[in-house]
Specification:
The chain has 17 helices and 13 strands. It is α+β, with helices and mostly antiparallel strands.
Length: 365
């Protein structure tokens, strides 16, 4: 039986704790989403809070301090929040490209591929006594004649070399201290499950994507895991072939897409949603299908979404943008979307007021 895109978006809203809104913890939200963009902090807080019935800005920072979530470099090299239980799978997929072995990396950082085990061990030892700030980590590297040049690169503001240390499962980022990022050993986090083998992690990551963001085409999965996590196309193809054993093909208004067999009944039972949600820029509601997916982002408004506008989503479709100025929530409702749902926007403004702990009045243009 063919599905409609309205049904699919209704199902995704359920899966992503947007309709109905979830009642679990920050870690529950991050587990469901697999990863949550973690920069800027305000957007990360809102992306999680809007998916929790009693969410507040600051809850994600508390979860990071408690170690129930960890901050790591992941999709497209950007910072993301993950749970210690799930992070290893995403990190090993990100590491599978072995970018640090590229000739450009070896020349710039003066580290050969076989230098990395000793470099990892040195950083581990530096972090053995507890988290270090960026300044403290630079100082620790300066104490080594072998890595003093790396310290100079970090001191100049180029932190790229720290990313493979995350991908290889050595360290993540903890709560800021005195305005600086801190770095901590991942294997000291409660629940850290370690780094699995790539051929175990790859199918896990793909299945998690389909379970939350599906149904999807193979090309979209290649974009998410390949372009997003830097995995090689041949590896993604092999992992996808393994996952396809547990999938069915579904027709969504003429599109042939993959869905996990365990999700098929719930997908067919899903109904279109009328929920209105105020989401931050970079939210996975848009990032996971891609901003070029016109079922989620109307083609005429792709540019404004790509410029990192905050999103007004109605029935799963981006139908406007929003910003906060003083005590006003200013909503730009796309003209071709029809009349703005004033009552629903009022309720969402109240929710945002609660999350941000400030009184906002909606103004719709």
């Amino acid at each position: 039986m063919a599905l409609t895109w309205a049904q699919v978006l209704g199902w995704r809203l359920q899966r992503q704790l947007l309709d109905p809104v979830g009642t679990g913890s920050v870690a529950d939200v991050v587990t469901r989403m697999g990863a949550m963009p973690a920069w800027p902090d305000a957007a990360a807080e809102l992306g999680i809070a809007v998916r929790r019935h009693d969410g507040r800005s600051g809850d994600a920072a508390q979860a990071l301090a408690a170690g129930t979530v960890v901050k790591v470099f992941a999709f497209r090299g950007a910072l993301h929040l993950m749970t210690p239980q799930d992070a290893g799978a995403y990190l090993v997929v990100r590491a599978s490209s072995r970018m640090w072995e590229l000739a450009s990396w070896r020349r710039f950082y003066e580290l050969e591929a076989d230098d990395w085990p000793a470099f990892r061990d040195y950083v581990r030892q530096a972090l053995d006594d507890g988290p270090l700030t960026h300044t403290e980590l630079v100082a620790a590297l300066r104490r080594s004649s072998r890595y003093r040049h790396v310290a100079g690169i970090l001191a100049d503001g180029n932190d790229t070399i720290l990313k493979p240390l995350t991908w290889q499962g050595v360290m993540g980022l903890g709560p800021a201290r005195d305005g600086e990022a801190t770095f901590l050993l991942l294997d000291e986090l409660p629940g850290w499950a370690g780094v699995p083998e790539p051929d175990e992690a790859g199918p896990t990551v793909i299945a998690a994507y389909l379970h939350t963001h599906g149904p999807a085409s193979p090309d979209r999965i290649h974009d998410w895991v390949g372009k997003g996590l830097g995995a090689k196309r041949k590896d993604v193809a092999r992992w996808l072939q393994d996952v396809e054993k547990h999938c069915e093909h579904v027709d969504v208004e003429g599109d042939d897409l993959l869905v996990l067999r365990d999700d098929l009944d719930a997908l067919h039972a899903a109904t279109p949603s009328t929920a209105v949600r105020l989401l931050p820029s970079r939210d996975h509601w848009v990032m996971a299908p891609g901003s070029s997916d016109t079922r989620v982002v109307p083609a005429a408004h792709k540019d404004v979404v790509s410029r990192l506008a905050n999103l007004v989503v109605a029935g799963g479709v981006v139908l406007g943008t929003w910003t906060v100025r003083a005590e006003r929530l200013e909503v730009t409702w796309f003209e071709e979307s029809g009349p703005a749902p004033a009552d629903a926007l009022g309720r969402e403004t109240d929710r945002l007021s609660q999350i941000l702990d400030r009184t906002l009045e909606p103004v719709v243009a």
